[in-house]
Write a structure and sequence with these properties.
disordered N terminus; mainly alpha; about 60% helix
Length: about 280
């Protein structure tokens, strides 16, 4: 069923790829809907095709992310042990929010609400945001499913080390599907896409904080290691940015121009590697 849905999106994308922004003015709700479905499929295809277009800087960033993740795994066991001491102090409401918000039904319920609100009130900015959310989370979800099926990393709750992998490719196991965090990639992709609506850095930071709650709670309940959550967050940012650039050619409402003051950079220093967010 997932493969059929994905193929449907790509076919829609090809069908209307010749349409321009100018030709879509004063379109009916149904015509806008068809165009947006094509934008979702095109955005997914664009994100998956990007590695074929990477050059030196992009491959360097990828190598940095891979190296940084590997370094973080060295502290995973220690961080998991630390959470044992604070687990009982975390409010149950926060844990429940983190669990329910980032489930597929909660995630796509939110993105669908944003999209259909924009569709029916004829607000292109909301439509684009909904399209960005849906395309980004589908892309992230597919990548996450491939990752857990290939790597089969043990979850913290198994009691095994963070560096324990059961390399039985494409075998489903609830105990060995830790890397990377699906809850994180879904929740933070949504938060990051919504944050593009706003220019105020404090509003953005608040939205990002809410988007990070599911990842934090997954660490607390020993479903994921710290590196699983960090990698899921970074992947969310990369996916949303990639699809957002593609959508610039599809919609009049632009986000990139209004968000040039926000920069995500990899940082390297002796004994340190990480991601830095700058507000200029």
């Amino acid at each position: 069923m997932k493969n059929i849905f994905f193929l449907f999106l790509l076919l829609c994308s090809c069908y209307i790829s010749g349409q321009t922004i100018e030709s879509l003015k004063n379109q009916t709700t149904w015509q806008n809907f068809k165009y947006d479905i094509g934008s979702i499929g095109g955005g997914i295809g664009h994100a998956f095709s990007r590695p074929a277009h990477w050059k030196g800087k992009e491959w360097l960033n990828f190598a940095g992310i891979a190296t940084g993740t590997a370094i973080l795994t060295l502290s995973d066991d220690e961080i998991d042990n630390w959470t044992d001491g604070i687990r009982n102090d975390i409010p149950n409401d926060l844990l429940e929010f983190g669990g329910h918000y980032a489930r597929p039904e909660g995630n796509y319920g939110l993105s669908s609400a944003v999209y259909f609100t924009g569709l029916f009130i004829k607000n292109e900015k909301l439509r684009r945001t909904g399209v960005l959310m849906i395309a980004s989370t589908i892309t992230g979800g597919i990548l996450q499913q491939l990752s857990i099926r290939i790597l089969n990393r043990a979850r913290p709750l198994t009691g095994e080390s963070a560096n324990n992998f059961d390399l039985k490719f494409f075998e489903k196991s609830e105990r060995y599907n830790s890397f990377f965090s699906g809850h994180t990639v879904l929740s933070f992709a949504n938060a990051y896409a919504i944050g593009k609506q706003f220019n105020n850095p404090w509003v953005k930071a608040g939205i990002y904080t809410v988007g990070m709650i599911p990842g934090f709670t997954r660490i607390i309940i020993s479903k994921h290691w710290f590196s699983d959550v960090v990698f899921g967050t970074v992947m969310s940012i990369l996916i949303v940015e990639s699809i957002d650039k593609y959508l610039d050619s599809r919609y009049e409402q632009k986000y990139n121009e209004n968000n040039k003051k926000v920069h995500w950079d990899l940082t390297f220093a002796p004994g340190q590697i990480g991601v830095k967010l700058n507000f200029n």
